């Protein structure tokens, strides 16, 4: 049986439609949601990601400004740019594109973004609130993955969820979100012994590893839901962390790469930006 596709293109287009209506409603109140993206250096992947974010803002009517700073930017200049955006009431969201050049301290820079403008959900306060199950800005990629599960009506409570990867931006927040939804969560990583023994138990399997086609069909339970977060480039073509062609024959649901979680990541950035503008408007 071939799995049902969890289609990020369709789901993100639907979400964008709803967000566009929210942007229009905000504009009627005299507020245009504003996103500032800070891009340091000329990493080609980062340039592409930032370009996609700019395009999404244009589609939705969000005002976006990208500060392109040279590779040689000093920490003080980066931090001054963040403080300026913090102080600007027309900026509702601030995003520092990662990775930053090696000489810069990204943890310190991210800690300076006002938590309510932290549309990436990487600020310590937002991560702390997520850990406590409180209202907060949630990191876009895990938020998008959860949205796909919920949108497809997949039951999460009581299910065995296995997350491969424990990064701060994907694996850990993903595990926390699934826990919040009452799944029984296992987090696997590079030091996990007998990984397949864990993954074969999973009703919901999330792969966030960064290794092309790492999750093979023999690692997946019949009827599982498989969320592939990985974005890898092999011979110039994008592929995920899951061996899609083989795993789709075994899974009940699967996300494709491209056209899966990646699309939702951008949509969730827009969602976080619109929500930040709405909160600011309600406070004014
Ligand atoms: P990362 O390198 O920070 O973390 C990778 C994780 O995989 C680590 O926790 C590590 O322990 C684990 N791992 C590595 N080798 C392993 C192995 N052999 N067995 C089990 N676990 C292993 O990466 P990340 O930032 O979390 O990103 C993961 C993937 O997701 C990458 O391909 C990245 O490009 C992609 N990504 C996609 C989006 C999106 O929008 N779809 C967003 C962020 C990251």
Descriptive notes:
By secondary structure, the protein is an alpha/beta fold. It has 2 domains: 30-115, Rossmann fold, CATH 3.40.50; 140-262, Rossmann fold, CATH 3.40.50.720. Helices cover 43% and strands 16% of the residues. The protein is built from 10 helices and 11 strands. The chain has a 6-stranded parallel beta sheet with strand order 1-11-8-7-5-6. A hairpin with a 2-residue loop joins strand 9 (232-234) and strand 10 (237-239). The chain is globular, with a radius of gyration of 19 Å. The protein starts with a strand and ends with a helix. Nicotinamide-adenine-dinucleotide (NAD) binds at residues 141, 164-167, 169-171, 188-190, 192, 195, 208-211, 229-232, 261-262, 265. Nicotinamide-adenine-dinucleotide (NAD) is lined by residues 141, 164-167, 169-171, 188-190, 192, 195, 208-211, 229-232, 261-262, 265.
Summarize the structure.
This protein has helices at residues 8-28, 44-60, 75-87, 106-112, 124-132, 140-151, 171-180, 195-199, 244-247, 261-283; strands spanning 4-5, 34-40, 63-69, 93-96, 160-164, 184-188, 204-207, 225-228, 232-234, 237-239, 253-254. By secondary structure, it is of the alpha/beta class.
Observed structural traits:
alpha/beta, 10 helices, Rossmann fold, three-stranded parallel sheet, 284 residues
């Amino acid at each position: 049986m071939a799995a049902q596709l969890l289609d990020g293109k369709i789901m993100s287009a639907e979400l964008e439609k709803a967000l566009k209506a929210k942007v229009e409603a905000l504009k009627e109140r005299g507020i245009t949601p504003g996103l500032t993206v800070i891009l340091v250096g000329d990493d080609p992947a980062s340039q592409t990601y930032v370009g996609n974010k700019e395009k999404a803002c244009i589609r939705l009517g969000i005002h976006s400004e990208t500060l392109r700073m040279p590779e040689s930017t000093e920490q003080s200049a980066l931090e001054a740019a963040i403080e300026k955006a913090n102080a600007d009431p027309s900026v509702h969201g601030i995003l520092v594109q990662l990775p930053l050049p090696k000489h810069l301290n990204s943890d310190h820079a991210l800690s300076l973004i006002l938590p309510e403008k932290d549309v990436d959900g990487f600020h310590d306060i937002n991560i702390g609130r997520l850990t406590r199950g409180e209202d907060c800005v949630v990191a876009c990629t895990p938020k998008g993955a959860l949205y796909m599960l919920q949108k497809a009506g997949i039951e999460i409570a009581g299910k065995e969820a296995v997350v491969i990867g424990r990064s701060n931006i994907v694996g850990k927040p993903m595990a926390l979100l699934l826990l919040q939804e009452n799944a029984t969560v296992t987090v696997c990583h590079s030091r996990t012994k007998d990984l397949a023994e864990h993954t074969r138990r999973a009703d919901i399997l999330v792969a966030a590893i960064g290794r092309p086609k790492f999750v093979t069909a023999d690692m997946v339970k019949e009827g599982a839901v498989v969320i592939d977060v990985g974005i890898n480039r092999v011979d110039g073509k994008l592929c995920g962390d899951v061996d899609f062609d083989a795993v789709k024959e075994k899974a009940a649901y699967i996300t494709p790469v491209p056209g899966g979680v990646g699309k939702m990541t951008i949509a969730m950035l827009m969602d976080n930006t619109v929500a930040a503008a709405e909160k600011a408007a309600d406070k004014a």
